[in-house]
Amino acid sequence: MRIHLNSVFVDSQVKALDFYTNVLGFVKKHDVPLGEPSEENRWLTVVSPENPEGAELLLEPSGHPAVGPYREALADDGIPATQFAVDDVHTEYDRLRELGVRFTQEPLEMGPVTTAVLDDTCGNLIQIMQEG
Q1: Is the per-residue pLDDT at 39 higher than 70?
Q2: Which helix (H) or strand (E) covers residue 13, if one does?
Q3: Residue 54 phi/psi, 5° resolution?
Q4: How far, in Å, are 1, 45, 80 from residue 68 at the CA level?
Q5: Contacts of 26 (CB under 8 A, 6+ apart)
Q6: Distance (Å, rounded) from C-alpha 116 to C-alpha 130?
Q7: d(CA 19, CA 93)
Q8: What is the SS3 assignment for 69?
Q9: CA distances to 35, 86, 109 from 113, in Å
Q10: pLDDT digits (tens, 9 = 90+) for 75-104
Q11: What is the average pLDDT value for the chain, to the nearest integer?
Q12: 3-state secondary structure of 14
Protein backbone atom coordinates (compact mmCIF):
# COMPACT_ATOMS: atom_id res chain seq x y z
CA MET A 1 0.00 0.00 0.00
CA ARG A 2 1.25 3.50 -0.77
CA ILE A 3 -0.12 7.03 -0.79
CA HIS A 4 -1.38 7.92 -4.26
CA LEU A 5 -3.48 11.04 -3.76
CA ASN A 6 -4.22 13.55 -1.03
CA SER A 7 -6.67 16.45 -1.17
CA VAL A 8 -6.63 20.03 -0.03
CA PHE A 9 -9.85 22.03 -0.22
CA VAL A 10 -9.50 25.30 -2.14
CA ASP A 11 -11.90 28.19 -2.59
CA SER A 12 -10.76 28.73 -6.19
CA GLN A 13 -9.10 26.11 -8.36
CA VAL A 14 -7.77 28.83 -10.69
CA LYS A 15 -6.14 30.73 -7.82
CA ALA A 16 -4.92 27.48 -6.24
CA LEU A 17 -3.33 26.23 -9.47
CA ASP A 18 -1.48 29.53 -9.83
CA PHE A 19 -0.25 29.46 -6.22
CA TYR A 20 0.70 25.80 -6.10
CA THR A 21 2.55 25.91 -9.44
CA ASN A 22 3.94 29.43 -9.83
CA VAL A 23 4.72 30.06 -6.16
CA LEU A 24 5.28 26.69 -4.48
CA GLY A 25 6.79 25.08 -7.60
CA PHE A 26 4.57 22.05 -8.15
CA VAL A 27 3.59 21.04 -11.69
CA LYS A 28 0.11 20.32 -13.01
CA LYS A 29 -0.53 16.64 -13.66
CA HIS A 30 -4.27 16.26 -14.33
CA ASP A 31 -6.84 18.86 -15.35
CA VAL A 32 -10.13 17.18 -16.22
CA PRO A 33 -13.40 19.18 -16.40
CA LEU A 34 -16.23 17.78 -14.28
CA GLY A 35 -19.83 18.36 -15.35
CA GLU A 36 -20.89 20.92 -17.92
CA PRO A 37 -18.20 22.99 -19.63
CA SER A 38 -19.62 26.12 -17.98
CA GLU A 39 -18.94 24.68 -14.51
CA GLU A 40 -15.64 25.54 -12.87
CA ASN A 41 -15.02 22.27 -10.98
CA ARG A 42 -12.22 20.11 -12.33
CA TRP A 43 -10.22 17.05 -11.33
CA LEU A 44 -7.09 19.13 -10.85
CA THR A 45 -3.92 17.63 -9.43
CA VAL A 46 -0.34 18.79 -8.97
CA VAL A 47 2.83 16.84 -8.28
CA SER A 48 6.39 17.53 -7.26
CA PRO A 49 8.64 18.14 -10.27
CA GLU A 50 11.18 15.94 -8.45
CA ASN A 51 8.77 12.99 -8.50
CA PRO A 52 6.15 13.46 -11.27
CA GLU A 53 4.94 9.86 -10.91
CA GLY A 54 4.66 10.15 -7.12
CA ALA A 55 1.81 11.18 -4.86
CA GLU A 56 -0.58 13.75 -6.30
CA LEU A 57 -2.25 16.65 -4.52
CA LEU A 58 -5.87 17.16 -5.57
CA LEU A 59 -6.93 20.83 -5.49
CA GLU A 60 -10.44 19.96 -4.36
CA PRO A 61 -13.29 22.50 -4.72
CA SER A 62 -14.55 23.58 -1.31
CA GLY A 63 -18.26 23.69 -2.18
CA HIS A 64 -19.50 21.09 0.31
CA PRO A 65 -21.20 22.79 3.31
CA ALA A 66 -18.97 21.00 5.83
CA VAL A 67 -15.75 22.34 4.30
CA GLY A 68 -16.07 25.96 5.45
CA PRO A 69 -16.47 25.24 9.17
CA TYR A 70 -13.78 22.53 8.98
CA ARG A 71 -11.21 24.83 7.33
CA GLU A 72 -12.09 27.76 9.61
CA ALA A 73 -11.63 25.60 12.72
CA LEU A 74 -8.25 24.35 11.51
CA ALA A 75 -7.06 27.87 10.61
CA ASP A 76 -8.35 29.37 13.88
CA ASP A 77 -6.38 26.76 15.82
CA GLY A 78 -3.29 27.18 13.59
CA ILE A 79 -3.49 23.60 12.31
CA PRO A 80 -2.06 23.03 8.82
CA ALA A 81 -4.26 21.25 6.29
CA THR A 82 -1.25 19.36 4.95
CA GLN A 83 2.53 19.29 5.07
CA PHE A 84 5.26 19.37 2.43
CA ALA A 85 8.89 18.31 2.83
CA VAL A 86 11.64 20.71 1.75
CA ASP A 87 15.42 20.42 1.77
CA ASP A 88 15.93 23.62 3.77
CA VAL A 89 13.07 25.37 5.58
CA HIS A 90 15.02 28.62 6.08
CA THR A 91 15.91 28.90 2.38
CA GLU A 92 12.35 28.07 1.30
CA TYR A 93 10.94 30.52 3.86
CA ASP A 94 13.14 33.31 2.47
CA ARG A 95 12.28 32.44 -1.16
CA LEU A 96 8.53 32.38 -0.47
CA ARG A 97 8.59 35.58 1.61
CA GLU A 98 10.24 37.34 -1.34
CA LEU A 99 7.29 36.18 -3.46
CA GLY A 100 4.85 37.74 -0.99
CA VAL A 101 3.74 34.56 0.79
CA ARG A 102 2.35 35.19 4.27
CA PHE A 103 3.61 32.92 7.03
CA THR A 104 1.75 32.31 10.28
CA GLN A 105 4.78 30.57 11.81
CA GLU A 106 8.38 31.47 11.08
CA PRO A 107 10.94 28.64 10.91
CA LEU A 108 10.94 26.79 14.20
CA GLU A 109 13.37 24.06 15.20
CA MET A 110 11.74 21.24 17.15
CA GLY A 111 14.30 18.57 17.85
CA PRO A 112 15.07 16.72 14.60
CA VAL A 113 12.68 18.79 12.44
CA THR A 114 12.36 22.42 11.41
CA THR A 115 8.94 23.70 10.36
CA ALA A 116 7.23 26.85 9.11
CA VAL A 117 3.54 27.45 8.32
CA LEU A 118 2.24 29.49 5.38
CA ASP A 119 -1.13 30.69 4.12
CA ASP A 120 -1.87 29.22 0.68
CA THR A 121 -4.27 32.12 -0.20
CA CYS A 122 -6.96 29.48 -0.88
CA GLY A 123 -8.24 28.97 2.67
CA ASN A 124 -5.55 26.72 4.12
CA LEU A 125 -2.49 26.76 6.30
CA ILE A 126 0.32 24.62 4.88
CA GLN A 127 3.32 23.42 6.87
CA ILE A 128 6.72 23.01 5.28
CA MET A 129 9.19 20.81 7.13
CA GLN A 130 12.77 19.65 6.99
CA GLU A 131 14.18 16.64 8.78
CA GLY A 132 17.70 16.65 10.17
Answers
A1: no
A2: helix 13-18
A3: -85, -160
A4: 31, 21, 15
A5: 20, 46, 47, 48, 49, 57
A6: 9
A7: 15
A8: helix
A9: 43, 11, 6
A10: 999 999 999 999 999 999 999 999 999 999
A11: 94
A12: helix
Which residue type, as a one-letter code, is found at position 60? E
Q: Which residues contact 88 (CB under 8 A, 6 or more apart)?
A: 130
Instruction: Please give the pLDDT value at position 83.
Output: 97
DSSP notation for 70-125: HHHHHHHTT--SEEEE-S-HHHHHHHHHHTT--EEEEEEEETTEEEEEEE-SSS-E
Q: Are 32 and 43 in contact (CB under 8 A)?
A: yes
Q: What is the pLDDT of residue 101?
A: 98
